[in-house]
Amino acid sequence: TEIYTLSLHDALPILIAYFLRRPKINALLATGTTVILDRYSFSGVAFTSAKGLDLEWCKNPERGLPKPDLVIYLTVDQRSAAERDDYGRERYESIEFQERVKDKYNQLRDDSYWQVVETSRPKEQVHQDILQLVQETIKRVEKKPKADLPVDQLWI
């Protein structure tokens, strides 16, 4: 068996195209379907650029994707995260790397549609905060005139 290794520079567009499935998302949005994603463009861009690639270059393959109505940015103090029993088992779980990722997220953050939820609180409180944000956003979007569709595009 032959193993091929791609650089981050070469692999990023392939991973993005596979993961996001732009036509499927657009088709669902066009029918009025609410789409909720766990991770979106911001995650890939933040993690990839934290590995050393240019932030703007990492955004390029994702330009033109539907702009979210809401991004829920979950934060936790890195020292608290490192104290969790299973911390460090994943490839990129180190305090140094996570701080770089956090910096990249802060560069991407747009307060017009990003909401920050601090997660060092009890799970029930975090859940309630997220549920409230999602419900408020769905109600707000449902009130938009259909003329506002298609949705805005990301980084255009």
Mean pLDDT: 82
Uncertain runs are none
State the helicity in percent bands. 40-55%
Percentage of β-strand residues = 5-15%
Describe this structure in words.
The chain has 156 residues and is mainly α. It has seven helices and two strands, in the order H-H-H-H-E-H-H-E-H. It has a two-stranded parallel sheet with strand order 1-2. Helix 3 packs across helix 6. The longest helix has 20 residues, at 123-142. The chain is globular, with a radius of gyration of 17 Å.
Which descriptors apply to this entry?
single chain, mainly alpha, 7 helices, 49% helix
Secondary-structure map with pairings?
Layout (H helix, E strand, L loop, with lengths): L7 H13 L1 H9 L10 H10 L4 H5 L11 E5 L2 H5 L12 H14 L5 E5 L4 H20 L14
Parallel strand pairs: 1-2
